[in-house]
């Protein structure tokens, strides 16, 4: 990619338009005003134009059961590449690549109805990854997962980002957004506001408009600065490990006798 990839958190209160925006970006809806462009070219809402868009942008919905339909994991993941008319060898390569990226290669032949909830989430995402999109949009991907499942998925998404995919995540979890995202987009009644995650999620005025609370990491950084424990120019903690490191007392230096 010519542009740097990023992890983007999409935030807003219920009914703010997150789902509509995601469907617009992925071609599920056509805008009544304005236009959607891909690399500067307006999207054409015919078969050719939508195919081009969906090989660039993929949306994974919140409930994997709304997306999975094939008998086995591999069959489900292969659906998109097959519809592109790719040769069988290319389809197999994409399926293998997507299963490996989501750490579910061992599940390739398993019936989808026998998967756990977390495995179904990963299979749904693998189906999108098999299309090799430049932008992957995920609606509440960590919802319903246990803490270990959340961490494993976030690690996977970080790997996708490192391989060249821009990941956009809609989430209600402000703490997750602060810890995970490079940038944040806040949907407010006055419009969409975007910027670095640590800057946007510290804007109490915008958070109030969006119906969101202040992330604990931002609140902790303000408390540390108020007590002189964190320099104004130093970044605040994004997770518990970073907070513990900041709060840990410095190791005293012991001078040895000459």
Structural class determined from secondary elements: alpha/beta
User: Ranges with pLDDT <50 over ≥5 residues?
Assistant: none
Distance between the termini: 57 Å
Characterize the biggest β-sheet. 6 strands, mixed
What does this structure look like?
This protein has 258 residues and is α/β, with parallel strands linked by helices. The protein has a single domain (7-196), classed as Rossmann fold. The protein has eleven helices and eight strands. The chain has helices spanning 18-25, 47-54, 73-83, 88-101, 117-129, 147-162, 174-180, 197-200, 204-209, 216-226, 240-247; strands spanning 7-12, 37-38, 41-42, 57-60, 135-139, 166-170, 183-188, 191-196. It has a six-stranded mixed sheet, sandwiched between helices. Strands 2-3 form a two-stranded antiparallel sheet. A hairpin with a 2-residue loop joins β2 and β3 (41-42). α4 (88-101) packs across α5. The protein is globular and about 65 Å long. The termini are far apart.
In short:
With 258 residues, the chain is of the alpha/beta class.
Which features does this protein show?
11 helices, globular, single chain, Rossmann fold, 258 residues, alpha/beta
Reconstruct the topology from this structure.
Blueprint (H helix, E strand, L loop, with lengths): L6 E6 L5 H8 L11 E2 L2 E2 L4 H8 L2 E4 L12 H11 L4 H14 L15 H13 L5 E5 L7 H16 L3 E5 L3 H7 L2 E6 L2 E6 H4 L3 H6 L6 H11 L13 H8 L11
Parallel strand pairs: 1-6, 1-7, 4-5, 5-6
Antiparallel strand pairs: 2-3, 7-8
